[in-house]
Structure formats: structure tokens, C-alpha cells
Specification:
alpha/beta; three-stranded antiparallel beta sheet; globular; eight-stranded parallel beta barrel; TIM Barrel
């Protein structure tokens, strides 16, 4: 309550990106991990067994993750982990350091509990990220999102991704291949089945090479992050690629370019310009994408649900649709640091109420019901 009644009003008086940077840098101080644990009253060191999840070869203490985009350069990972996250996805990082798009590039829509951003993968580069994280790893599963450098032509994108992948390979628990941000020109073209298959095949070869060189038993889990604006026919082709190339999982979804049905005035929304919309308006769209992917894969490919999660009920909806894990970003900004604890505690209560002995058991429990509902409409 302190965050929503006192801190959020103060932060929301600042420009959105200024407030974000202030919060992030505050979390990078040496004492921040200790204070973060105290403030959030996190029980991350003694998690409930009921919320543990096994997915794409990794063990997660709970299913609630921080989505890519919050800590692009990995400067506050230990403190963020102390808030109780089961996983943190850092980045998106690119091979070449880049400043991103011109400011302002992050906007709040409080009436919609939403954000619009067009950051454009602003980051210090994959190599600098890896050096920093090597000295301050978080106490949870760490995913790293990689994307295409803005100045790299589309026909050279594969090599660009390979260089980023090689840089982060030593410090990541999994790597997310971001081909769905709307803020880098032509990036979403990599969701085309032919382009995507070429990229994933090259990353798989590099993965095997680096795994052998490092003497690891298993290759790095590779996930693909998709847009929420794809048609079912597009998803069918992508799933075909994912299954042929043995992709470890799918993250659904990134931000949307759709601006319909918002409470914020159309004039104000237009004044913000281009960018991806996240938050509550994305909730249903992302959940439908998860349910569709779960149906297309018959639950054989782990899914990470992202989009509009503010409460345990929102997270539960994604899990019922087929998500093994969930990630938050906009909800974290609007609800504050205790959101992680509230969602995890709420999930424990829901699981017990619904008669499940574990979260693992509940994954996809409503997917085929939703499928039947959609079919009968």
C-alpha cells in the first residue's frame, strides 16, 4: 500500500523513463539486495513447494518472472532477485552498443494501466552486459534476451544474433531470441517461417559448438519471443519451425501495436507516437495466443505467458491457458515491489482451492475448455 499511496504518485510526477532509471539505479546500490528483501517481505529463500516449476530443463522456485526490458544492462539483478522473482529475463541486448530511439520514448496510460514504449533496444552491448553480470549474478534463474542491432541489415541479422549469443552464453541460464519488438525496423520480419528457421538453425549449431567447448552436458535452452499481433495461420507456421528445430520454449507475448478500445483519449495516444503497448489492454490478447500455441503444440512446448498480469488471478489465467511460467513488467511498475509476493501467495491459495497439489499439475488445465468455447462461438 505504501508504494501505491506514496511512492507511485511521486514517481508518476516524473517523466516515465526518468522514474524508471531512478528506480533501477536505486536497486543497483550495494545494500539494495538486503533492503529489497526486507521491503518485499520476500520468502524467496523458503518458497512454497507447491509453486515450484520444472520447465525447459531448468528448475524455478516459483513461476513469476521479470520480463525483458526492465533491466536491459543487468545493473540491478541481485536486488531484483531479492524481491522474490523465480526468474529474471535481462536485456534485450544487441551485439553492438546502441542508444535506442530518441527520447521521450516511454509513456504511461494510467486510465488503462498500460505503457507505450519505443525504446529501441537501448543497451551497452552484449559483451559489456556479460562482463557486468559475471560479477553479480542474481539468486534466481537468469534469462537473457538478444535482439538485432539496429544498424545491422536484415540479411546480416543471423551473424549479429550469433555474436550476441556467444557473448552471453557463459552467464545465461537460458537465452530468449527476440524477433518481435515493434521498435526495431524490420525485426518482426524474422517471425516469417523461412527467416525464423534459418536464424534458429544457426543458433542451434552455435549452441552445440559452445556447449561442447565448455564441456557442458546439455545445450543452452533457446526460447523464441513472439508478437501478439500474429494470426493463427502465422502461429501454425512458427510452431512447425519451433518443433522441427527443437526450440526449448515460446514466450507469448511481446507488446502490441494495436491501440483500439483504450480509455485514454485517442488524441493523447496519437500524441505519443509509435511504440508497443503493454499492460492490462494486452491481457486477453496474450492469453488467447498462449491458448492457441498450447493447442497447436498439444502442450509439448513450454510457454512463458506475458501481458497484462497484475494479480494472481491474471497469472492463473495464463497458467490455465497453458503457460508454465509468467512474466511481469507493466504490473511491476503500477503495483510496486510486493507484487511478486502477492502473486505467488495468491497462486498458492488458488491451487489449494482448485484441488491441485502443485502448479506443475495445473498447467494448461483450462486450455481445451477455452478451445471448445472458441470453437462454438
Amino acid at each position: 500500500m505504501l508504494y501505491r499511496s506514496l511512492l507511485r504518485p511521486i514517481l508518476f510526477r516524473l517523466p516515465a523513463e526518468t522514474a524508471h532509471e531512478l528506480a533501477l539505479h536505486s536497486l543497483s546500490f550495494p545494500l539494495a539486495p538486503f533492503l529489497a528483501g526486507k521491503i518485499s517481505q520476500s520468502n524467496s529463500n523458503n518458497p512454497s513447494e507447491i509453486t515450484r516449476v520444472q520447465s525447459f530443463g531448468l528448475s524455478f522456485r516459483n513461476p513469476v518472472g521479470l520480463a525483458a526490458g526492465f533491466d536491459k544492462d543487468g545493473i540491478a539483478l541481485p536486488a531484483l532477485a531479492a524481491l522474490g522473482f523465480g526468474l529474471i529475463e535481462a536485456g534485450t541486448v544487441t551485439h553492438r552498443p546502441q542508444p535506442g530511439n530518441q527520447r521521450p520514448r516511454l509513456f504511461r496510460l494510467p486510465a488503462d494501466k498500460a505503457l507505450i514504449n519505443r525504446a529501441g533496444f537501448n543497451n551497452d552491448g552484449a559483451a559489456a552486459f556479460a562482463r557486468r553480470v559475471a560479477t553479480q549474478r542474481p539468486d534466481c534463474i537468469l534469462g537473457v534476451s538478444i535482439g538485432k542491432s539496429r544498424e545491422t541489415p536484415l540479411d546480416e541479422a543471423v551473424e549479429d544474433y550469433l555474436k550476441s549469443f556467444e557473448a552471453v552464453f557463459p552467464i545465461a541460464d537460458y537465452v530468449a531470441v527476440n524477433v518481435s519488438s515493434p521498435n526495431t525496423p524490420q525485426l518482426r520480419e524474422l517471425q516469417n517461417a523461412t527467416q525464423l528457421e534459418g536464424l534458429i538453425a544457426a543458433l542451434n549449431r552455435k549452441n552445440q559448438e559452445l556447449t561442447a567447448r565448455a564441456g557442458r552436458r546439455a545445450t543452452m535452452p533457446l526460447l523464441v519471443k513472439l508478437a501478439p499481433d500474429l494470426e493463427e495461420s502465422d502461429l501454425e507456421m512458427i510452431v512447425d519451425v519451433v518443433q522441427r528445430q527443437s526450440v526449448s520454449g515460446i514466450i507469448a507475448t511481446n507488446t502490441t501495436t494495436d491501440r483500439s478500445n483504450l480509455q485514454t483519449s485517442a488524441a493523447r495516444v496519437r500524441s505519443y507516437g509509435e511504440g508497443g503497448l503493454s499492460g492490462a489492454p494486452l491481457r486477453d490478447r496474450s492469453t488467447k495466443t498462449i491458448a492457441c500455441l498450447y493447442k497447436l503444440t498439444q502442450g509439448s512446448v513450454p510457454l512463458v505467458g506475458v501481458g497484462g498480469i497484475f494479480t494472481a488471478a491474471d497469472a492463473w489465467e495464463k497458467i490455465c491457458a497453458g503457460a508454465s511460467l509468467v512474466q511481469i513488467y507493466t504490473g511491476f511498475i503500477y503495483e510496486g515491489p510486493r507484487i511478486v509476493q502477492r502473486i505467488n501467495q495468491g497462486l498458492v491459495e488458488i491451487l489449494k482451492r482448485e484441488g491441485f497439489s502443485s502448479l506443475q499439475e495445473a498447467i494448461g488445465c483450462g486450455a481445451f475448455t477455452q478451445q471448445e468455447i472458441s470453437r462454438n462461438k
